[in-house]
Amino acid sequence: MIVIDEKVSSELDFLSLNQDQIHSEHRFLGEFIPGKYTNLTKNSILIIETKAYHEKKQKSNLSLLKQKISEYEHSQDKLFIYNGIEVPSEKIKNLKNINFSDLEVFEILSQKNAQAIYGPKTQKENIILNTKNPVKDSILP
C-alpha cells in the first residue's frame, strides 16, 4: 500500500513523483503499521509526504499554535512543554517570541497520552513544542 500526503495512492502516483518533491518517506511492515492504516493493510505500507503538503501542514500548525498561545496566555489549567521543560503559566506569553521557522515539533496531546509521559500534572490539552536548537532558542530565562 502507498499513501501520499495522507491519501491512499497508486504506484503510478508514486512513480510520477520526483525525488526533490518528497519531504519524507517511511516504510512500515506488519505490526509496525500506524493504527489508522491497519484496517487497510496488514503487510506493508509506504507513507510519503511531499514538500508542498508538508509546507501547507506547517503553516496550518503555526496558525493553530499562535491561536493556542493567545488562548492560554492567562490560563492556569494548560500545560506547555517547551524543549522538554514545563512552561510556568506566567511565562506562556514568552512563547510568542518563538522563531516559528525553527520549530521542529508541535503537538497537542490529550490528557491520557500526555499523562503517560508527564504524569499527573497534565491537563485536558497539553502543548508540546521542540525547536531545532533548544539551547540557542531558549525563551525561558
List keywords for this structure.
four-stranded mixed β-sheet, single chain, 30% strand, 141 residues, alpha/beta, 3 helices
Task: Please give the share of residues in helix.
Answer: 10-25%
Instruction: Report the count of strand segments.
Output: 8
| Unreliably modeled segments | none
What's the end-to-end separation, in Å?
A: 48 Å
N-to-C series of helices and strands? EEHEEHEEEHE
Taking the sheet with the most strands, its summary is: 4 strands, mixed
- Give the amount of beta strand, in percent: 25-35%
Number of helices: 3
- The overall pLDDT average reads 83
What's the Cα radius of gyration?
A: 18 Å
* Helical/strand content category: alpha/beta
Q: What's the overall geometry?
A: globular
Give the neighbour order of strands across the main sheet: 2-1-4-3
Describe the structure.
With 141 residues, the protein is α/β, with parallel strands linked by helices. β1 and β2 form a beta hairpin. It has helices spanning 11-15, 51-72, 111-118, and strands spanning 2-4, 7-9, 22-29, 44-50, 79-82, 85-87, 103-110, 125-131. 25% of the residues lie in helices and 30% in strands. It contains three helices and eight strands. The protein is globular, with a radius of gyration of 18 Å. The strands form two sheets. Strands 2-1-4-3 form a four-stranded mixed beta sheet. The model has no long low-confidence stretch (mean pLDDT 83).
Q: Topology of this protein?
A:
Blueprint: E1 2-4, E2 7-9, H1 11-15, E3 22-29, E4 44-50, H2 51-72, E5 79-82, E6 85-87, E7 103-110, H3 111-118, E8 125-131
Parallel strand pairs: 1-4, 5-8
Antiparallel strand pairs: 1-2, 3-4, 5-6, 7-8
